[in-house]
């Protein structure tokens, strides 16, 4: 039905067993080799698998969530796109983070759960920076995917007890 599973941190964030050894070098290689658009697509593909696995486990009422089949490159991508930090722990340039998040948004299928992962993850983290909220509000009028992101957030946030704030403007 497109709704997000109850344990959104498992499916939207990094898994607990992330091995980040060599991640700074790997991130630079991935960015140079794949480019921003492909990194955004791969981030969405990883989120989609996590959401599907969690939905299947909820449907089966299984106690154990199916293990992700996320490769090391995808973990590095997620470790950068979700919080906007490079693997060394420093903030990536806002221009790059914006481009990565927008590439992921434009690669995202029309699924409230996946869109919520983007809104609650990279876009909510990014909104703390100057000018980002204004840019999202402006783009909502001109970009169908940004408009759809706002709709998904308004659809999903009430299940978290949130019925007002930025996404409801």
Quick summary:
The protein has 7 helices and no strands.
Structure characterization notes:
The structure is a single chain. The chain is an all-alpha fold and about 170 residues long. The chain is about 60% helix and about 0% strand. It is built from 7 helices and no strands. It has helices at about 10, 25-60, 70-80, 95-105, 110-125, 130-140, 145-155. The two termini are about 25 Å apart. The model is unreliable at about 1-10, about 15-20 and about 60-70 (pLDDT under 50).
Question: Radius of gyration from the CA trace?
Answer: 16 Å
Morphology call? globular
Q: State the distance separating the first and last CA atoms.
A: 25 Å
- The level of helicity is 55-70%
Largest sheet: none
Order of helices and strands: HHHHHHH
Q: What are the low-pLDDT stretches, counting only 5+ consecutive residues below 50?
A: 1-11, 14-18, 62-68
Keywords:
169 residues; mainly alpha; 0% strand; disordered N terminus
Topology of helices and strands:
Elements: H1 8-12, H2 23-59, H3 72-81, H4 94-107, H5 112-126, H6 132-140, H7 144-156
